[in-house]
Amino acid sequence: MRIVAERARRTAGVGALARVGDVALTVLAAAGALCIVLVVLAFTLNISLIMFSTGSMTPTIPAGSVALVREVPATEIEVGDVVTVDRPAALPVTHRVTEVLGTDGEQVTFTMQGDANADPDPAPYTVSQVRLVLGSVPHLASVIVWFQDPVVLGCLTLVAAGLVTWAFWPRQSRRAVDPEPARADPDQERDTLDHT
């Protein structure tokens, strides 16, 4: 009886560990699939992520947000769109389009202003390409920055490698785990014979 109880306890422990491992592998697989989808979107649709370090677009896009943006021709923008414009020798700026001043071929001249700013940007922008903001997630920038830390990346790599190794490690056969088969109780065998 003690052998059966010990075997059941050992099996329950291994089963719980296997379930935790399966969940961890599923989470890693989902994260990997998401990364693949983002890479495909980036190459096929010119979609990328940008992080907001200032609050000039608050409350629409608060500081610390991450936005999904798509590169489009400047001729497609309209008043009210939130776009990112690259500036020479300066960081890109993401503000709302307030007025389209004119179009010259592919070049468009327009003005912008941050939702939290009292005044419009000091000068109009003339560009042929902009990145249109499709949506944003508040407070996600700090999570992305945390994941970019080399120590965190190293630990995640080690954990992922350990889980993959564990998942594909050869399992012991049942006989190797339980070398002695459970023996029937002689009294129970005698009772069974008496009743037949």
TrEMBL record:
Subcellular localization is given as: Membrane
* Peptidase S26 domain location: 32-111
- The UniProt record lists the keyword Transmembrane helix: yes
Biological processes per GO annotation: signal peptide processing
Q: Please give the InterPro entries that the UniProt record associates with this protein.
A: LexA/Signal_pep-like_sf (IPR036286), Peptidase_S26 (IPR019533), Peptidase_S26B (IPR001733)
Example of a GO MF term = signal peptidase activity
Give positions of region: Disordered: 175-196
Recorded hits in NCBIfam families, A to Z, give:
sigpep_I_arch
The name under which this protein is listed is: Signal peptidase I
